[in-house]
Amino acid sequence: MLTRHFFKLLLISAFFTWFATAGAQPSVKNISADYRTIEVQATDDLAKIAALSTRKSLPVLLAFTSSTCGYCEILQNSVLKPMLISGDYDHKVIIRKVVIDEVLDVVDFDGKTIPISEFTGRYKVFVTPTVLFLDHQGRELSKRMIGINTVDYYTADMDNAIDRSVKKFQQRLQKQPGQLTSTSRREQR
């Protein structure tokens, strides 16, 4: 009787061990392969991002980073790359970064080339990382995220900010049907 009970427990244990490891291994391999190859796209042309935002009707998550910023690496490796790999954000937000110490000028949302210092100054970006949630015209949609704290909390806050941005972006689209085009800053004022 004890042998039969022991055999059942061993069989159940073996099944759960196989189930847990067999199902997880392929996805872990795929994620690690994707993790090495996927990068957050850097941009210095916001007019192209505005056109993409217009075409896809999606807001833009724009991360301001620096090549010497350790916290920017944490943001990219622990938050943004997993977001890209998951595919869960492909139809919610366009994810890009501006590496502020690697470019001298950027093409603004209205197509004009301006110094990076003017661009960061307009958005009051003084520390990296700073993450903005923008519409196709470069207007902020949700509260910006400055710095990075505990990754789990940060990711939850970012998800909430993305959801708010999507909602606000869609509301703006409904208020201006047929007018979803990039406009210059002067036209907005």
Task: Describe the fold and architecture.
The structure is a single chain. This protein has helices at 2-37, 46-56, 70-86, 116-122, 151-175, 185-188; strands at residues 60-65, 94-99, 105-107, 113-115, 130-134, 145-146. The chain has a four-stranded mixed β-sheet with strand order 2-1-5-6. A two-stranded antiparallel sheet has the order 3-4. The protein contains six helices and six strands; from the N terminus they run ααβαβββαββαα. β1, α3 (70-86) and β2 form a beta-alpha-beta unit. The longest helix is centred in the first third of the chain and has 36 residues, at 2-37. The N and C termini lie far apart (84 Å). With 189 residues, it is α+β, with helices and mostly antiparallel strands.
Feature tags:
four-stranded mixed beta sheet; Glutaredoxin; 6 strands; 6 helices; 13% strand; alpha+beta; 189 residues; two-stranded antiparallel ribbon
Overall residue-averaged pLDDT value: 83
Structural class: alpha+beta
Which descriptor suits the 3D outline? globular
Provide the CATH architecture: 3-Layer(aba) Sandwich
Low-confidence stretches: 9-29, 180-189
> Helical stretch count?
6
Distance between the termini: 84 Å
Q: Work out the strand percent.
A: 5-15%
- Give the total of beta strands: 6
Write down the CATH class. Answer: Alpha Beta
List the secondary-structure elements in sequence, H or E. HHEHEEEHEEHH
Classify the helix fraction into a percent range.
Answer: 40-55%
CATH topology: Glutaredoxin
Major sheet description: 4 strands, mixed
- CATH homologous superfamily descriptor: Glutaredoxin
Strand order of the largest sheet: 2-1-5-6
What is the total domain count? 1
